[in-house]
Write a structure and sequence with these properties.
The chain has two domains: 21-41 and 265-455, Alpha-beta prism (UDP-n-acetylglucosamine1-carboxyvinyl-transferase, Chain), CATH 3.65.10; 45-262, Alpha-beta prism (UDP-n-acetylglucosamine1-carboxyvinyl-transferase, Chain), CATH 3.65.10. The protein is 27% helix and 23% strand. It has helices spanning 45-56, 71-82, 120-131, 151-159, 196-204, 224-236, 271-280, 300-303, 347-354, 376-386, 416-428, 447-455, and strands at 21-22, 25-27, 35-39, 62-65, 86-90, 99-103, 112-115, 134-140, 163-165, 174-179, 185-189, 212-216, 241-245, 248-251, 260-262, 282-287, 310-314, 317-321, 337-339, 361-364, 390-393, 398-401, 408-410, 432-434. The strands form six sheets. A four-stranded mixed beta sheet has the order 1-2-24-23, with helices on one face. The chain has a four-stranded mixed beta sheet with strand order 3-16-18-17, covered by helices on one side. The protein has a four-stranded mixed beta sheet with strand order 5-6-4-15, covered by helices on one side. α3 (120-131) links the parallel β7 and β8. The longest helix is centred in the middle third of the chain and has 13 residues, at 224-236. The protein starts with 20 loop residues before the first strand and ends with a helix. 53% of the residues are buried.
Length: 456
């Protein structure tokens, strides 16, 4: 069930994109000169999908203003609809589509199948919700989704008394036999493979009979900011959630308050645009940058200066300027050593930037990104290597040594971040052809048009 291409919604804030599709894929446009662009982005996928789940479990109607409309968010919406949640689209004012009113079901009902696509949030957030529904709910997804680890979710729910049939796979497909209630209580769980295992349980925990006292048993927990995002969203809806010690979370049972919430722009999707300023020269501004946020992408403001960028924030606009060129005509991009354990989703785009640095870079703490849409460490080593860079795949990271690069095919592996990484390389390397630019529809259906508008 491989479906990586996504048709963007009809709205188009930037008009027609230039035709760069070829028989082999999308020919990444080369920057003709330094950039001077302002980019507006649609809503955060991570926030949208958390708010969709909480709104579906809330005690009344909620409204999401400026939600993301993409393949991942629509898969979440359709999954919740299959369990009985109703939705009403309303005219939006954010420039990227409708707002959304969420009407919780009087009683969640299973006896359905949920297509997870390649969305980790759907396959990890909705099984606890399905456990609260009456009847069996079968989960399946794209071919790549069946390779993503699900054992922690399955084992955790089983430990809470939920009947799950997975034929011993610890992966999709599986069936959750919901009884309309989950006892909850104390649970130990190794979430080393993904923080989404923790977030999925926390989101549904207020509806468990005894709430949840969840303790992470693994040595490392990746992407901790995503758990902090989940906790902030719960607290905004009146849920009593505490962290008595690192790696332990307690959620008291109780109602989830219905609220109206505005979704922030997706700051991780800002990464390729901001990095473009360093690769092509000039400056790029992202509008709508929040003053306070739990999004991982906010770390770009501190990470990009490590590479030599000049970063400034003026009200809600973050601007990245390229470093001063070196005396020998180089871009002035510095090699770095970074622990990116809390910012794994930024790694593919930062790896492209490192390929244009004036020295080697090493990224560590990112072994968990082998289990994303694809094995991102292997994919980056392969694609950057075949384009000319010298890349060494480490147990938990990458070492990237810049070298002259050349054009050619760039495989996206049905992974939106691999696709945007190819676009970054293509800014300075003529002839990069991304085989599946449509995979960006997972979180940013407008990517191609926004990218070409930035270069116009």
């Amino acid at each position: 069930m491989q479906i990586s291409r996504y048709s963007a919604p009809e709205f188009d804030p930037y008009g027609e994109a230039r035709q760069t599709e070829t028989d082999d894929g999308w020919r990444a446009p080369v920057a003709a000169g330094p950039l001077a662009s302002v980019v507006a982005l649609p809503g955060s996928k991570s926030l949208t999908n958390r708010e969709l789940v909480l709104a579906a479990l809330a005690d009344g109607h909620s409204t999401l203003h400026a939600p993301l409309w993409s393949r991942d968010s629509e898969l979440m919406l359709e999954g919740l609809r299959a369990l009985g949640t109703r939705f009403e689209r309303m005219p939006g004012t954010g420039g990227f589509g409708d707002d959304l009113r969420v009407i919780p079901a009087d009683e969640l009902v299973g006896s359905t199948t949920i297509d997870c696509g390649l969305a980790g949030t759907v396959m990890r957030f909705l099984p606890p919700v399905a456990a609260l529904a009456l009847g069996p709910t079968t989960f399946d997804g794209d071919e790549g989704a069946r390779r993503r680890p699900m054992g922690a979710s399955i084992q955790g729910l089983r430990a809470l008394g939920v009947d799950i049939d997975d034929d011993g796979r610890g992966a999709l497909p599986f069936t959750v036999h919901g009884t309309g209630r989950v006892e909850g209580g104390a649970l130990e769980l190794d979430a080393s493979a993904s923080s989404q295992f923790v977030s999925g349980l926390l989101l549904a925990a207020p509806r468990f009979e005894r709430g949840l006292d969840l303790r992470h048993t693994g040595e490392r927990l990746p992407s901790l900011p995503h758990i902090e995002m989940t906790i902030a969203a719960l607290r905004a809806r009146g849920v009593d959630v505490t962290t008595p010690e690192p790696g332990r979370w307690q959620v008291n049972p109780g109602p989830i308050r219905a609220i109206d919430v505005t979704i922030e722009p997706d700051l991780s999707n800002a990464a390729p645009f901001l990095i473009a300023a360093l690769v092509a020269g000039g400056h790029v501004t992202v509008a709508g940058w929040p003053g306070q946020t739990t999004q991982v992408g906010a770390r770009l403001a501190e990470l990009l200066p490590r590479f030599g960028a000049r970063v400034s924030i003026d009200d809600d606009r973050l601007t990245v300027r390229a470093p001063e060129p070196t005396a020998d005509g180089g871009r002035g991009i510095r090699g770095v050593e970074l622990d990116l354990s809390e910012a794994g989703e930024l790694v593919p785009n930062l790896a492209a930037l490192a390929a244009f640095a004036d020295g080697p870079s090493t990224f560590t703490g990112i072994g968990h990104i082998r289990h994303h849409e694809t094995d991102r460490l292997a994919a980056l080593a392969t694609e950057l290597g075949e384009s000319g860079a010298r890349v060494t795949e480490l147990d938990d990271g990458l070492r990237i040594e810049p070298a002259p690069m050349h054009g050619g095919p760039w495989r996206a592996y049905a992974d939106h971040r691999m696709a945007t990484t190819g676009a970054i390389v293509g800014l300075a390397v003529p002839g990069i052809v991304v085989d599946d630019i449509g995979s960006t529809g997972k979180t940013l259906p407008q990517f191609q048009k926004l990218w070409e508008q930035m270069l116009a």
